[in-house]
Specification:
The complex is a heterodimer of chains A (112) and B (114). Chain A has 112 residues and is mostly beta strands. Chain A has no helices and 11 strands. Chain A is globular, with a radius of gyration of 13 Å. In chain B, strands 2, 4, 5, 6, 9, 10 and 11 form a 7-stranded mixed beta sheet that branches. Chain B has strands spanning 4-7, 10-13, 19-25, 32-38, 44-51, 57-58, 67-73, 76-81, 90-97, 103-105, 109-113. The chains are: A mainly beta (112), B mainly beta (114). Chain A binds chain B through residues 6, 8, 32, 34, 36, 41-46, 49, 88, 95-100, 102-105, and chain B through 4, 6, 32, 34, 41-46, 49, 91, 93, 95, 97, 101-108, 110.
Amino acid sequence: QKEVEQDPGPLSVPEGAIVSLNCTYSNSAFQYFMWYRQYSRKGPELLMYTYSSGNKEDGRFTAQVDKSSKYISLFIRDSQPSDSATYLCAMTQETSGSRLTFGEGTQLTVNP
Amino acid sequence: GAVVSQHPSWVICKSGTSVKIECRSLDFQATTMFWYRQFPKQSLMLMATSNEGSKATYEQGVEKDKFLINHASLTLSTLTVTSAHPEDSSFYICSVPSTNEKLFFGSGTQLSVL
């Protein structure tokens, strides 16, 4: 069993839709949770960074962490075609925020 | 602007040759850098941790003699794929932890071995 499970999609939505992306994990020691956006053949770009349980909002993006359920989510409001990319969840138990364990990534397409 | 500079962005080489990939931290000094590999439609897999002034730490199953890592300074780490073979063709990405515990990635290097 993988430490981090993420539905690879693909996920296709119309422009303006609310997108929900999710990951589950098995290691209860994970404390730091991240969402990265990766365009084709580019390095991942950090979108959201959260510590422990709770919500964090940044513009159109909201990250939620539920440690009791070992479940994290990323919501994208008013999705735009430029949001089309692969979204990777990542997490770590290390205080340095390093040695990340990644999900497979969800490929998202936002259609104009 | 970019926090991490990685080059080349792509390289094609013949089987049996060696390829060097550079990763530079532009905004801060990094005693540690990380090297990941990503196959098509798969997630990033950590290959090794590059340590400034000491030997790299390799993940299980990664051949240290094949993937040579040198952390020459606090801003530069290099990954050399030695005697490359077609199965080494992949997307290689470096990352650098920042001072606020976040991890930033380079733009990646697509290696194609013929």
